[in-house]
Amino acid sequence: MKYITKHQLKKSFKALENVHPFYGITFLACKTNDLPIGRKIEFPIDKFEHQLLEKYYKPEKNTERFLKVFRVSDKSNYWLRPDYPSSGSQKTRTNKFKDAFLHPMNTQVWGWASNYIEILKLHLHRHNQIPAFHLAVWLYRDREWKDETTARSIIDIFMREFKITNDEKKELFDTTIPEDLDLDLLFQAEPVSWSELSEELGIKPPPDRPMERGGNLFSLDLSGIGPAKSLEIKLSNRINLFTGDNGLGKSFILDCAWWALSGDWSGNQAYPREDAKKSDVKIKYKIQGKSGRPEASESYYDWKQQIWTSAGKRLTMPGLLIYARIDGAFAVWDPARYDLLKSELQKFNALIFSREDVWNGLPYQIGGTKKYLCNGLINDWVQWQYSPEEPPFSILKKVLRGLSPPNLSKGDIGFLEPGKPTRIPPESRLIPTIKHPYGEIPLIYSSAAVQRIVGLAYLIVWTWEEHKNQAKSIREKPQDRMVLLVDEIEAHLHPQWQRLILPALLNVLNELEKDLQVQLLITTHSPLVMTSIEPIFDTTRDKIFHLNLVQEGLFEGRVEIEEPEFVRWGSVNSWLRSNIFEVHPTSIEAENAMEKAKKLQLQKKASKEEIEEVSDLLSKYLSPHDPFWIRWTYFAKNHNVEL
Question: Tell me: the pLDDT tens digits for 229-272?
C-alpha cells in the first residue's frame, strides 16, 4: 500500500489556486447527493456542503473551520468560517451561479437547470478547465492506495465516486495527466501528516484552534545575541548534548531555550551584541506538540524598555519544564499551575529557585501575608518520610537510588539511601540524613556532589507530585511530556559517577510515569559522559551539538555550531582525542614531547643526537607504559639508537 507524497500534494495545492470554490465544494456536494437535472426537489444544500467540507476540507480536527483551498487571495488566512455553506457559499449560489440552478428564493428546493453545464463552463477561470488530477490528489490526500494505482486510476476513481457524467467530464474537467508529473515522486510508503504538510505550505493554524498543551523544543534560532552573531539549532526529541570549550555559549543556549519554552529568564536576560542591528536581535523558536506540528514563535528585544517580549499568541504550551543550573539554582515551569500563578501573583510565570530556596523553601508576599510556593527540600523530605501517605517518599527513594554512584569498589559511598532525620542545634527543624558506610550524615554536611544530585532528585519528584496534584484540582490529566535542562551534568561528580549519571537520569525520568516522554538538553565537558551514552544513543532521536571557535584572524573569530556524526569512540582517551574535545590524554609537556618525536619521524634524515634529545624528553614526561613507546622504540632502533 502507498500514499500521495508531500511533493505532489504541494504541487496539487498550488494548481488549485485559480479554481473557483464553487467547483470544489458546491458542485461536488450536489453531485454526490444526486441533485436532479431539469426538475426541483427538497435538497438541504447547506447540510450537504457542510458534510463535504467535514470530510475533505477539515484537516485540522480541533477546530470548527474548514481549509480554504481555492481562490486564496489572503495568504495569511487559509480558513473558512463554520457557517460558510449558509453564508459565503449561499451568496455565490444565488448570485454568480444562480442561472445554473432551479431554485425558488428562500426555500430548500433545488435542481440543476437543463443548461447548467453551459453556465458552469462559462464561469471557469479564463476558460481553464478544472484540473481533475490535482483536485483528486487533494481530496484523496489521506487515502491508502494499492500498489498498482496509477495517476490515471486516481482520476478515474474521482470521476466514478463523484458521479461525474461524460458531458461534465468533457466540458468542465481537464482529465489529462500533468506533463510535469514525476512518477517517482507521486507515491511514498507512509502518509503525510497534516502538521508536516501545513508547515510546508506555510498554513498557520485556524484562529479558533485551542492552545495545544504538552510540547517540547523543536528548534531555536538566535540572532544578534550571545557569542555568535547567529545560531540555528534543530533539536531531537530525546537527548540533546551540547559540547565545546568554555565561553562559547553552551549555558547561554540553555538559558535561551528556557526562555523560548517558559517565557521567563531563569537568571540574567540575554543582551544584544554591540555589533547587532536593532532589527536583527531576535529569538525564534518552534515548539512541537502532540500533533507533531512545530509551531513557530518569535521574541524580540524592546529597546525602550530593555526587556524581551514575544510577538503573537502562543499556539503550543510546553509540558513540564525543569532547569538545573550550574550554580545550584533551579527553575520549574508547570502548565497546570500557569493560570493560577498568573492570576494570583501577576508576576510569576515560572518558579525560579536559588540554591537556598531549593533547600529551605520558596516564599512570596501577597497582601502582607507570607506564603510558600515550595516548602523546600528539608521540610518536604521530613514530612514525606513521616507521612502515612507513602508515594512521594517512595518515589524519592527510587529516584535517589537510580541516580546513585555505581557500587564498583569498596571505596564507593554506596547507594543514596535516606537515613533517620536528626536535629542540629540551634536548628529546631529535623534535618534529613543520607546513609554512608561511615554513618548517617546530615544532608547539609554532605559533599557538593551528593547535594547537587539530591537537589536534582528532590526537584524532579517535587515538580512531578505538585503537577499531579494541581492537574487533579483543575480536572485535567497530568502531562505526559517533560523537558529537562541540565548545565554541566558532571559537575562535582567523581569519574565513576560521571560515567553513569546521564543514562541513570533518563531511566529515572522514564520510571516516573510509564508514558512520560522526556526531552533532555544537557551541556557537558566530560568525555566520561560521552562514553556513557554510547550504548543508548539513537541517531533517530538523539543529537550532539558542538560549539567551535573558527579563527578569522590573529585576534578575531566566530562561534559556529556543528552537528558531528555520532561515533562510538569507545575509550575515554579516544573521546578526548576526538573532534569533540581535541585533547591528548597526557600532560601538556608529554604532548609537546610526542609532537617533537612525530616531526622527527617525518624527517627524511634524523641524527643520533636529535633522537637521543627527544628520547630524553619522552623519558622525562611520558609514562613508561604509554603505547607511544612502541612506535618510538622501533624508530630509534631503525636508526641504530639504543634507548
Answer: 899 999 999 999 999 998 889 999 999 999 999 988 998 999 99
Which residue has 502507498 as its cell numbers? 2
For residue 72, the cross-strand partners are none
Sequence-separated (6 or more) residues with CB below 8 Å from residue 638:
none
| Rama region for 425: left / alpha / beta (φ>0; ψ in -120 to 50; rest) | beta
Domain boundaries, the chain: 3-201, 588-638
The secondary structure of residue 150, as a DSSP letter, is -
pLDDT of residue 359: 93
Confidence of residue 505 (pLDDT cuts 50, 70, 90): very high
Characterize 291-322 residue by residue with b for buried, 16 or more Cβ atoms within 10 angstroms of its Cβ, and e for exposed.
bebbbbbebbbeeeeeebeeeeeebbbbbbbb
DSSP 82-119: TTGGGTHHHHHHHTTTGGGEE--TTSSEEEE-TTHHHH
Q: Put the strands of the sheet holding 41-42 in their side by side order.
A: 41-42, 109-112, 101-102
Q: Which three cell numbers stand for residue 12?
A: 496539487
Per-residue pLDDT tens over the stretch 595-626:
888 888 888 888 888 888 888 888 888 888 88
Q: Are 373 and 364 in contact (CB under 8 A)?
A: yes
- Residues 521, 331: contact at Cβ < 8 Å? no
Residue 240: what are its φ and ψ, rounded to 5°? Answer: -125, 110
Look up residue 89 and give its three cell numbers. Answer: 457559499
Q: What are phi and psi of 283, to 5 degrees?
A: -125, 110
- How many residues belong to the chain? 643
Rg over CA atoms, the chain = 33
- DSSP per residue, 573-590: HHHHHSTTT---SS-HHH
Give the C-alpha separation, 324 to 308, whole Å: 22
Which residue has 426537489 as its cell numbers? 41
134-173: pLDDT as tens digits? 999 999 999 999 999 999 999 999 999 999 999 999 999 9
Q: What is the 3-state secondary structure (H, E, C) of 140-169?
A: CCCCCECCCCCHHHHHHHHHHHCCCCHHHH
27: nearest Cα among 39, 38, 35 = 35
Q: Say if residues 105 and 94 touch (Cβ distance below 8 Å).
A: yes
Residue 391, C-alpha cell as written in the block = 508515594
Give the per-residue pLDDT at 61: 82
What is the DSSP annotation of 375-395?
--HHHHHHHHHH-S--HHHHH
C-alpha cell at 393: 517518599
Is-above-0.85 flag for pTM?
no
